[in-house]
Amino acid sequence: MMNGFESALSDFVAKASPKTIHEVGCGEGYWVLRWNELGIPARGCDFSEKVIKIARENSIDRGLPPTVFQPRSIYDLEEIDDSADLVVCCEVLEHLEDPEAGLRALQKITEQYLIVSVPREPLWHMLNLARGKYITQWGNTPGHIQHWSRRAFVKLVSEYFDIVEIKNPLPWTMLLCRPRK
Description:
alpha/beta
């Protein structure tokens, strides 16, 4: 499954052909580090200071300055500090109490393209149950408080961005978007 996600994300990044990338919700920094290794200047932020500490350690191990990673909530993004040609926000919106506010924050910093993804429901729940995971929560991953079908997610995001392309790597919905002018 991860191969499908990685392939879809890599395809969208290639189509965007960015000069700069900002990953919002970067976790331990895997993608930011990879894009930098490919020669694309990338940076990342995450709300968790604990995870940013790990990302910074990973950047030092790869010879990159730890400052490519900053602790920051999606709600606190600023146009001056956080803008990039391509903004990537994968597997974040399902965790937010206010995903619309998150999308408005992404609007402020997206210069050319946005890539955004979420688990596709109810497929995500069913696959978790089939794996014997989160049975008492009916397959809902802890921390997932928002749930979208493909159609519902496209509808939500299209209120804030123009959808360029949709990919459905099992079991996600991934969108390549452009800001509205």
